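Hey L., structure's done. Input below.
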Amino acid sequence: MFSLFAEKIAKTFTRFQIDWVVFASALTLISFGLVTMNAFSGDNFYYEKQLIWAFVSISIFFVASFIDWGFLKRTQSVMVVYGVVCFLLVLLFSVSAIKGAKGWFNFGLFSVQPADIAKLSLILVLSKYFSKRHVEIAHWRHIIVSGIYACILFILIALQPDFGGAAIIFCIWFGMALVSGISKKHLIALGFIGVALFGILWNFGFKDYQKARVRNFIEPMSDIRGSGYNVYQSTIAVGSGGLWGKGIGYGTQSRLKFLPEYQTDFIFAAFVEEWGVVGTLILFGVFGILIYRITSVGVRGGSNFEILFGFGLATLFTSHFIINAGMNIGILPVTGITFPFMSYGGSHLVTSFFALGILNSMQKRMRYVHREQVHNELVGVGYERE
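Output:
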């Protein structure tokens, strides 16, 4: 009786054609974030609001999974998306600053951060650009053109100023350029050029106050009473977690508000304090499963576009993961980068689930492409991939 019921449920899930490994991994990460937020204070403002965003994001994931996103393979479509995102980023300069940055459109009940959408738009643009030029990808012009797409977004986001978001833009471009097969020699040469330009600006272009900002950005721990206070408290929280953690709701650094921005930038530190090394290993394992599954779907893509999109998405999440965890343990600068699926905020959560929905839709329709290929081979009809 039970086996028949289980088989019926399995058939129902199969009919939806949802990648349940990806969905379950992302949902687990959301749950970790919600549990950590819920442990802080009596009013539970962040927990309750994030719970709403979680339901909205999950709904968007399922809706996006049932839409055919094949039109994104057309140049006109991705350029329209890219153009709209650039327009929104320019429009941000006319809004009021929030915490010293002009990164959000405030609509009263909620705010929207276009930088999150910009990251997804860059993945789409580069997936389209590199997918059509894989044969001649080693040429300099493709580094330059793809770099221009990334550089425009990089500059617009950095001027907000949002150095963390700009860093993610660079990571997406660099990661997708490597995967697409761009010459390593060219990338190394660009690296040397970038270092040389920074050296020139440092010695002849930057003012003293600008140099001071860069030093504080790179070495926040050098001023633990000022710019380094947040990361100093974060390292205390991480170190005090021990092997098993202090228990859910018993993190002193977070509950007593010694750890600022515990719901966004430093939620990883708050999680580690309460869950310890064991919980952190579980967290890393869940995130690893998510990234592995995303790249696996990408590798099986029906065309170069799907393959590059999958790897671009994996690069996006991995970059967020590494930078956020790194700044929480004091080895990377504090940049305001969110921890994927865990940090408080609607924009990054909605965008992330929307991107996973697009990937799931591509995977679902990829099966149809392969079935058609087999059918055409059996009946002797020529088949050509997109």
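The chain is about 70% helix and 0% strand. The longest strand covers residues 105-106.

-- N.
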